[in-house]
Amino acid sequence: MDMDSLVEATIAPRLPRIGEPAPQFEAPTTHGTLRLEDFQGSWVVLFSHPADFTPVCTTEFIGFAKAQPKLKELNTELLGLSIDSVYSHISWVRNVEEKMGIKIEFPVIADLNKEVASLYGMIMPGESKTETSRCVFIIDGDQMLRAMIYYPLTTGRNIDEIIRLIKALQTSDEYGVATPANWQPGDRVIIPPPQTQEAAEERVETEGVECKDWYFCTKELPEAK
Ligand code: BEZ
Q1: Out of 57, 135, 211, 217, which one is annotated catalytic?
Q2: How many CA atoms lie within 13 A of 62 on its CB side?
Q3: How much of the chain is helix, strand and coil, in % rounded to 5?
């Protein structure tokens, strides 16, 4: 290992990983000082955007604001972030309301010192050293990090996919199942692969379970989420 890599490996912050506790923080926001632990019991979509007063970010904020009622039904709160001041955030959300007619009701972190951005690895220096990329962290009610999505500066996120992802995670938690590619609520779900020969034999005989083979079994859920 060369010296640069050694220094990097030694001092680089450990980035968050799925299945681990979400890094805790306290930060100034448009709704006052907030701590991640204030959200305990709710799911959280923590998302970063590159900068206030930019067009793609504006479309995303409108998308998130419109999705907020659906997210509330999923016990999920939104928390935005960029490396801008709280005054810039206030001015931008007021502008979005005035020009686009959409009220931004979720808090936005003013991360001028890059503390939260660094903690979560939201800055991709290859893209920009001064802006956060379009990162999404899905945090559950126990404050565990459940999913991460990263988009580049030039591509606006698909908000429907974020909602779908939360529904899939909550469905997996509730029913102990997995969800296939492009799953939508109401679709059949996957029964996780069996861990023993006995379980492999049992599942193919279970009523309501459809198996293509012992490792690929699906079932319907009692109700669509
Ligand atoms: C935008 O939000 O429009 C944007 C921000 C940074 C780079 C490119 C586009």
Answers
A1: 57
A2: 16
A3: 35, 25, 45
Sequence letter at residue 17 = R
Q: Give yes or no for residue 48 CB within 6 A of ligand 1.
A: no
Give, using CA atoms, the residue closest to atom 7 of ligand 1: 153
Helix axes 55-73, 159-175, angle to 10 degrees: 30
- Predicted local distance difference test score (pLDDT) of residue 14: 79
Q: Where in the chain is the domain with CATH 3.40.30.10?
A: 14-157
Task: Indicate whether residue 153 lines ligand 1 (CB < 6 A).
Answer: yes
**128 CB less than 6 Å from ligand 1?**
no
CATH superfamily of 176-224: Antioxidant, Horf6; Chain A, domain2 (3.30.1020.10)
Task: Summarize the confidence of residues 180-184 as an average pLDDT.
Answer: 98
Assigned superfamily of 14-157? Glutaredoxin (3.40.30.10)
**CB atoms near residue 57 (< 10 Å):** 22
pLDDT digit string (tens) for 84-124? 999 999 999 999 999 999 999 999 999 999 999 999 999 99
- In the chain, CATH 3.30.1020.10 sits at 176-224
pLDDT of residue 161: 98
* Active-site residue flag, 135: no
For ligand 1, the distance from its centroid to the CA atom of residue 156, given in whole angstroms, is 9
What pLDDT is attached to residue 8? 59
pTM over the 0.85 mark: yes
**138 vs 4, residue with greater confidence:** 138
Q: Is the CB of 125 under 6 A from ligand 1?
A: no
